[in-house]
Fold:
Amino acid sequence: MFAGSYRVLRPLRGGGMGAVHVVERITTGAQRALKILRQELCGDERLVRLFQREARIGHRISSDHVVDFIDAGVAEGTRWLVMDLLQGETLAEHVRGAGPFFHTLAADILAQVAHALAAAHAEGVVHRDVKPRAFSSPHRSNRASLCSSSCSISV
Structure:
């Protein structure tokens, strides 16, 4: 049980600032992504501000291409965010395993990324972590998704 509302199902990814887990909302059964700031970083005010800013940015950008932020808070001194759960592998993983995307799909992915970044820019946000491993592959949903600690954008 996490923050009284979420059941942690499994780890998803780890990174320098924290970890992301798949969780289930107890009241609805909906699966989401729970991002937790590493405990040892919770005392760093600059990083805490960046983490809080991510929740505000994710909530503020209104676009079908932006990952929805569902919840945020502090539990036992640990900062956390709950957002839509993105399925699939990253673009970098896809290219490493299956090779480059066909040119028409690659062009479509780039157009979606540009649309998402334009929505962010319209709110005064500049994404500073645009790279293939920050995107999920569109092979299941026909939508690539950008999700990183700088901003979370789904395309």
